[in-house]
Write a structure and sequence with these properties.
This protein is an all-beta fold and 228 residues long. It contains no helices and 16 strands. The strands form 5 sheets. A 4-stranded antiparallel sheet has the order 3-4-5-6, with no helix packed on it. A 4-stranded antiparallel sheet has the order 7-8-9-10, with no helix packed on it. The protein has a 4-stranded antiparallel sheet with strand order 11-12-13-14, with no helix packed on it. Strand 3 and strand 4 form a beta hairpin. Keywords: Repeat.
């Protein structure tokens, strides 16, 4: 007789006055509390300023992955097509026709990567962080058209406070860059070249991360030597 697979558990704690704990209550919690189990196991969690995105895991006889979000939605960052907060994990219907492989939550915007390398963003765009070439905000996911081509297959996205980065297949990074001139403001994804002390030891970057107003994407963990 096969032993029953242990179910995954989802716990949350901390500030909860905008529903980000997913407990259906608008209150803080000083201790970890168990959330009701979801239909599918979770493969990735992303915590933003006051919202959460969860990517469930499909395969193995289970249906395709699902993207859920909850918490503050006043900038459209939940992707539900409105500007409302959500107090519990709710599926983003837009992605019912896509297979999503990676998600990220910024301060008030969100990013999603499909299995085919396409990028979608939603939420606050007042600093150009959505990558659509303007400063518009969106309450439903919108594809970033400059990404996802054959030579720009995206594997990961990292959303910071007011900026975004994507990691391309092969280890290249593109950062959402804001450039001002006297006539217009241009917002676009620009290729980043990391500087290394020893060029002969180049390695592919395999992950990126954004926190607040800075980002990190080490090519070589030797870039972080241990302190003696």
């Amino acid at each position: 007789m096969k032993q029953k697979e242990k179910e995954e558990e989802l716990w949350s704690w901390g500030a909860g006055t905008e529903g980000q704990l997913g407990t259906t209550k608008l209150e803080d919690s000083h201790l970890p509390q168990l959330l009701p189990s979801l239909a599918l196991p979770i493969s990735q969690l992303a915590c933003g300023g006051a919202h959460v995105i969860a990517l469930t895991q499909g395969g193995g006889g289970r249906p395709c992955s699902e993207v859920l979000s909850w918490g503050r939605g006043t900038s459209g960052q939940l992707g539900h097509g409105d500007l409302e907060n959500c107090l519990y994990p709710k599926g983003i219907s837009f992605f019912e026709r896509f297979v999503v492989s990676h998600v990220s939550a910024g301060w008030s915007h969100s990013g999603f990567v499909s299995g085919s390398g396409r990028v979608f963003t939603c939420g606050d765009g007042s600093f150009g962080q959505l990558g659509h070439g303007d400063f518009q905000s969106h309450c439903s996911p919108v594809e970033v058209l400059t990404m996802g081509s054959s030579d720009k297959h995206v594997e990961q996205i990292a959303c910071g406070m007011r900026h975004s980065l994507v990691l391309l297949k092969g280890g290249k990074k593109h950062c959402l860059k804001l450039t001002y001139n006297l006539i217009s403001s241009i917002i676009y994804f620009d290729y980043l070249q990391l500087q290394q002390k020893n060029p002969s030891s180049r390695k592919q970057c395999n992950w990126i991360h954004s926190v607040g107003s800075f980002s990190i994407s080490p090519k070589d963990m030797n870039a972080f030597p241990r302190k003696s």
